[in-house]
């Protein structure tokens, strides 16, 4: 993460903060989906 930030052209703090918020939201949604899928998977296997 730090390396990527270092090599990326300089962006204002506001935009980077907004982007990280968006990314974390997306990650949370993805993890929730994965967890739900895993739960249904384990149920069907039993």
From TrEMBL:
Region annotated Disordered sits at 1-25
Name of the protein: Uncharacterized protein
- Organism for this UniProt entry: Treponema ruminis
Source taxonomy lineage?
Answer: Bacteria, Pseudomonadati, Spirochaetota, Spirochaetia, Spirochaetales
